[in-house]
Amino acid sequence: RMYIGTIHSYCHNVLMKMDAIYRQYDVLDDNRLVLYLISRYAQLGLRTLQRRITSRYKYFRTIRQVVEAWKTSNDELVDFEDIRAADSELGGILVTLRNSLQRDQYLDFSMMIREVVDGLRRNEDTAVEAIGLLCHLMVDEYQDINPCQEELIRQMHSRSETLFVVGDDDQSIYAWRGADVS
Fold first, then answer.
1. What is the SS3 assignment for 164?
2. pLDDT top residue among 51 and 104
3. How far is Cα 22 from Cα 25, in angstroms, rounded to an integer?
4. Coil, strand, or helix at residue 167?
């Protein structure tokens, strides 16, 4: 009755309990996400963003910036509609990317956590039931979590008996990807 694993593998497990369709999804690492964008460059409307790039290698810089915007918006729990309100082109592309990934049955690591967080925030029966047996939660390397992971821990802890975290702010190395030692 004990689950030991990464936060990503735990969320993948929860998603599969929430909906069996997630058992068919492939998980895209960073390189496969880039390849996904390359293979669907025109379909996703990335050419509209390419115009904004003033340096050489516009194609690859556009892909890199969309990947970073995608992961950052998920890691920071930024609503895609809020992004669309501030930047209609980028927001539209992120919404299209989300829909395309779902249609093609892919998840990346950032979306994996966000889907569980969103389900728990909405108090969806399937999400609550998927973590229903949770009694005690222990998180290691707590200093390196991002806001989405923090919200996941908060949501899980509100449904558990105890929370134990281990962290060392002198070892915080992931600020560049959204970790906030505070």
1. strand
2. 104
3. 5
4. coil
d(CA 16, CA 149): 18
- Burial zone of 163 (CB within 10 Å; 0-12 exposed, 13-18 middle, 19+ buried): middle
DSSP assignment string, 51-62: TT--SS-HHHHH
Q: How many CA atoms does the CB half-sphere of 148 hold within 13 Å?
A: 25
Start-to-end CA distance of the chain, whole Å, equals: 32
Adjacent-strand bridge partners of 166: none
**Which one, of 119, 121, 101, 128, lies nearest residue 25 by Cα?**
101
Tokens of 70: 């995608």
CB 50 within 8 A of CB 57: no
Full-model pTM: 0.87
The residue assigned the tokens 């998920």 is 74
